[in-house]
Amino acid sequence: MELAIPTLRIGPLQLDFPIVQAALSGYSDAPMRLTARRLGAPYTLCEVALDQFVLKLKPRPRNRHHFFIADEERPVGGQLMGADPADFGPAAERLVAHGFDVIDINFGCPVRKVLGRCRGGFHLSQPEVALDIVRRVRDVVPERIPVTVKMRRGIDDGEESREKFFAIFDGAYAAGVAAITVHGRTVEQRYDGPACWDFLRNLKAHAGDRTVLGSGDLFTAVDCLGMLRKTGVDGVTVARGAIGNPWIFREARALAAGLPLPDPPDLAEQRAVIAEHYRLAEEIYGAARCVADMRKFGIKYARLHPQHERVRDDFVRVKEPGAWRAVLEKWYS
């Protein structure tokens, strides 16, 4: 039986499916995003960019990979993170100039180094600064470009943290954001313990017809549809669950259509997808430059292989340009 899965609206953008790929630091570059789009993701976000990095990046050929966007992956979002509100507006304008269709503001990163520099999730402790950032971005970004926000459910579980969360959440919509993604863990939790889906359910009831996306503990297609059903959020963003498993989007579409859960990809399909992912990386970065970055993807892809530990170890050993082809020939023939 087909499930009542809605489309997802983010400002003027109408997406045909509400399960999208999140921004993933160190991962969601153009090759990963393209792979996800081809396997069913209706929308993806580029890995987070520091506002200072965006402002200082020179328009040189060797830098083109940082904000490379292929026509077939649109719409695609660019995510900003920083400390000084004054830098966010100019950086957002740069991302628009690079061609991003949505500007997302990161108030959710829980990494200690990020928090120590007053970035990411740190802003959940200071609603006035967070909302100043949102207004500065919305004021300079063209109306046709949606502005969105990524948050966690607070710094911690205290009442003061909760009050600050809702000050930012409600204030951001009032300032013109089109959607907010909320991760069901606190900043203090980082990635430990379960994400609180009950919080997301109550939050969506509070938000009414405002667009809310949920995040946290989405590692399978069943998880994705489960969050939609149990919380009532308008969409979900798949983060770590999509690394090395872009098939999660195709599987979710099948389940939403009332079809059986597809079988895991066989070795031939795994080989084809991995080979194309590597080919895209070589095309965008160059064969030598992509070796280190692609090694981490090979390790994640290896998890689906019956002999995943041995395959993982061989991907780790890849040091030379093109050597990944020997791994595919050995394990995926």
Condensed summary:
By secondary structure, this protein is an alpha/beta fold. The chain has 13 helices and eleven strands.
Tally of separate helices = 13
- The CATH topology annotation of the largest domain reads as TIM Barrel
Low-confidence stretches: none
Output the radius of gyration. Answer: 20 Å
- Please, what is the oligomeric state? single chain
**CATH arch. level architecture of the largest domain:** Alpha-Beta Barrel
- Counted beta strands: 11
Considering DSSP H and I runs of 4 or more, what fraction of the residues is helical? 40-55%
Output the CATH homologous superfamily of the largest domain: Aldolase class I
Number of self-contained structural domains: 2
Along the chain, the helix and strand elements come as EEEHEEHEHEHHEHEHEHEHHHHH
Task: Tell me, rounded to a whole number, the average pLDDT.
Answer: 94
CATH class of the largest domain: Alpha Beta
Report the sheet with the most strands, covering strand number, pairing sense and barrel closure: 9 strands, parallel
Proportion of residues in extended strands = 5-15%
Cα shape: globular
End-to-end C-alpha gap: 37 Å
Tags for this entry?
alpha/beta, nine-stranded parallel beta sheet, two-stranded antiparallel ribbon, 11 strands, 43% helix
Provide structural commentary.
This protein has 333 residues and is of the alpha/beta class. It folds into two domains: 8-256, Aldolase class I (TIM Barrel, Alpha-Beta Barrel), CATH 3.20.20; 267-331. It contains 13 helices and eleven strands. The strands form two sheets. Strands 3, 4, 5, 6, 7, 8, 9, 10 and 11 form a nine-stranded parallel beta sheet that branches. Strands 1-2 form a two-stranded antiparallel ribbon. The model has no long low-confidence stretch (mean pLDDT 94).
